[in-house]
Amino acid sequence: MSRHSIESGYISDEEKTFTTEKIIKEDAKRFQKNFTIEEELIKSANGVIYSGFELRSGEPAIFKQIPKTSINNFVSYKGRQIPSEIFYHLKAAEASEAVVKIIDFFERKSSFVLVMEKLENVTDLYEFVGEMGPLSEEAALFIFKQVIEAISELADVGISHRDIKDENILINRETLQVFIIDFGCASRTGLSSNPCGTPEYWAPEVFTETEVETEITDCWALGAVFYIMLTGSWKFENNKVTRNFVLEQHLSENIVTVFDRLFHDNPACRLYLSDLINMF
Predict the structure, then answer these.
(1) Residues in Cβ contact with 72 at an 8 Å cutoff, skipping those fewer than 6 apart
(2) What does each C-alpha distance from 140 to 28, 128, 133 come to in angstroms?
(3) What is the pTM of this model?
(4) Same-domain check for residues 66 and 149
């Protein structure tokens, strides 16, 4: 098995260093001692995903390399500065069993590396619905309840995910158990003046207001995920969602009412996490 250089994707003449060279060297030794990279899986502007192994146990792991050039926010954690993505992922994993667990993290000269558990027999919800087509209300509700509970558990400790979408939800093909990933946009709950995430899943007010409430915008995105599961459709253009009422004809009246509330133009009239928990 060949070893893959995890720095290969981000070579720069102007590498950013946010901590001491000593910590970077110690992290490099610790990484080499404990992990090996096998294969590059996905590459984007915001990170590279690799598969690999933990050397001592032989257990598979997933590695996310985050280039320092893409990191906007750092948080103090155990005497060092780390990306807010890693910080909120750590805290979220402590708060909810439905968050993919972090095994370790490391700093390199031009990037941070996040090591996570590798889940078996999972795909993301986008691929799952693409393969299966629109789900039955029973199946969709089973999945949706898990997602609501996970996001609510994060809110209970003051965390908003802020990039809820089908691609950030992993699902076990057999058990339908779900896992939340990607905390690159996560923040404290409350008012935010910094739009983040995927515009197709933003609530309309994110485009027009200087500040928005993170919980209610997360709930809008939850509604989008639920809608996709039940209809296989999501069309959001010009700051407005276009519902497919033909595809909604097979839905129960209660579910249609939920969508009416989740996609209300006025944020104050929408359902909150507590409402969703009580309803489902």
Answers:
(1) 84
(2) 44, 12, 11
(3) 0.91
(4) no
| Domain membership flag for residue 182 | yes
Section 153-175 average pLDDT: 97
Whether the Cβ atoms of residue 199 and residue 251 lie closer than 8 Å to each other: no
Cα distances (angstroms) measured from residue 80 to each of 84, 114, 117, 155, 168: 12, 15, 23, 25, 28
Backbone torsions φ then ψ of 17, nearest 5 degrees: -125, 120
* 152 shares its domain with 71: no
Q: Is residue 2 part of a domain?
A: no
157/189 Cα distance (integer angstroms) = 9
Overall number of domains in the chain: 2
| Domain end position, chosen among 86, 117, 148 | 117
Considering the domain architecture, whether residues 76 and 181 belong to the same structural domain is answered as no
Residue-range definition of the domain harbouring residue 272: 122-279
**Residue numbers annotated as active site:** 163
Instruction: Please name the residues in contact with 42: beta carbons below 8 A apart, sequence gap of 6 or more.
Output: 48, 49
Please report whether residue 12 resides in a domain.
no
Q: What is the pLDDT of residues 206-242, one digit of tens each?
A: 999 999 999 999 999 999 999 999 999 999 888 888 9
Amino acid identity of residue 204, one-letter, is P
Structure tokens at 3: 């070893």
Distance CA 149, CA 137 (A): 18
278, two tokens: 């009580």
| Residue 13 counted as domain residue | no
Whether residues 164 and 97 fall in one domain: no
Range list of β-strands (E), the chain: 35-44, 47-54, 60-67, 74-77, 80-83, 102-107, 111-117, 122-124, 159-160, 169-172, 178-180, 187-188, 191-192, 212-213, 236-237, 240-241
